[in-house]
UniProtKB/TrEMBL annotation, chains A, B:
The lineage of its organism: Bacteria, Pseudomonadati, Pseudomonadota, Alphaproteobacteria, Rhodobacterales. Keywords: Transferase. This is Glutathione S-transferase. The keyword Iron-sulfur does not apply. Residues 1-83 form the GST N-terminal domain. It comes from Silicimonas algicola. InterPro entries: Glutathione-S-Trfase_C-like (IPR010987), Glutathione-S-Trfase_C_sf (IPR036282), Glutathione_S-Trfase (IPR040079), Glutathione_S-Trfase_N (IPR004045), GST_C (IPR004046), Thioredoxin-like_sf (IPR036249).
Length: 213, 213
């Protein structure tokens, strides 16, 4: 049965899962979330898709899962890929997934949202600066890690890499320029070179600009 | 061997782990992190304790773990407690741990930090309002969940509860008042009634106000 992923192109959290699905060669299809028209916050979505009001949501037969980190773990169980080779590596991967959700993708992703998908006269400049400052601290941690090794947590690509790269391929300005971060840049190049890699906008339907609802 | 937890009283993320240790009856001791004098950001700490520059860090013999969600999972493996009764419940617990780290403790914890531990003339009002707005959205999700059930993810207390309550016992003002959230209030009461429960300031040494360094 085809796996469905409720997602939209601009969602880096969705991309983490869409990329794992694609790289694994699983049979899957995107289900468009009309995010900028408020679809993920609607009562119907909260009731029947995700009470947390977020994308991505994965539906595999009777199973419905939310939170990209949970879905990544599930896909690794299903395919044996990206989940680590030992208990120690599993923990290390989860450590980076949590760090990414708390300190990295969350900060840069929100800064990107406010800078690009909010009307210019409603952009909170102080908030954007704050989020970019936290994102910068995260970029330093990641750059240091990738100066020491090719992949964040394993001998090859794992869910730690797929989570941390979630927002880093997007072209919109949000405070990250690959050329400024040589180790991150090289690592993103290694990800792009993986068999089956696709850019988020080639993997998921775009929700921006929103169609008039 | 006594388990060591690098932590400080004001850290809700440390509290999640300290509470799990205490409720499990494990032999553990806090190792004070002089956070407000910059200890967690020092080169020595980053090098020998945690490259992410954060607390908590757990040391159990040769094993050193960071990220509260990873440590919670490790303690559950060790004790058989709080980790869920099935694969499905395990995933549900991880879902709430990720949500909490991304959307809840992170927002309210940072608002509390800026409102209470930063000099009054350096508090970014717009950032605090933004974080409190996101915290409010999280409180609504949690209140709805706890209107439907006694514990977030299991038949009794699990790591999902221990993560989400991380910042909710603190007395400092940060935008949460128990009386405003009856289901959350009752759930916090159930946590307080657990055998061995202690308030964060009774479980870990306080770092505020900072001693002159």
């Amino acid at each position: 049965m085809t796996i469905q992923l409720h997602c939209f192109g601009e969602s880096g959290h969705s991309y983490k899962v869409a990329l794992a699905l694609e790289l694994s060669g699983l049979d899957w299809e995107p289900v468009f979330v009309d995010f900028f028209n408020g679809a993920a916050r609607s009562p119907a979505y909260r009731e029947s898709v995700n009470a947390m009001g977020e994308a991505p949501v994965l539906v595999d037969g009777d199973l419905r899962l939310t939170q990209s980190g949970v879905i990544q773990g599930y896909l690794s169980e299903k395919t044996g890929r990206f989940g680590g080779e030992s208990k120690e590596e599993e923990r290390e991967i989860l450590r980076w997934i949590l760090w990414d959700n708390h300190k990295f993708s969350s900060q840069l992703g929100t800064a990107r949202f406010l800078l690009n998908f909010v009307p210019e006269d409603k952009r909170p400049a102080e908030v954007i600066r704050f989020l970019q400052g936290r994102g910068l601290a995260g970029l330093k941690v990641l750059e240091e890690r990738l100066t020491q090794r090719d992949w964040i947590a394993g001998r090859s690509v794992t869910n730690a890499d797929l989570t941390c790269c979630g927002y880093l391929f997007y072209p919109e300005p949000f405070g990250f320029t690959r050329a400024d971060w040589p180790a991150i840049d090289a690592w993103l190049g290694r990800i792009e070179a993986l068999d089956g890699w696709k850019h988020p906008y080639d993997l998921m339907p775009r929700a921006w600009p929103p169609a008039k609802s």
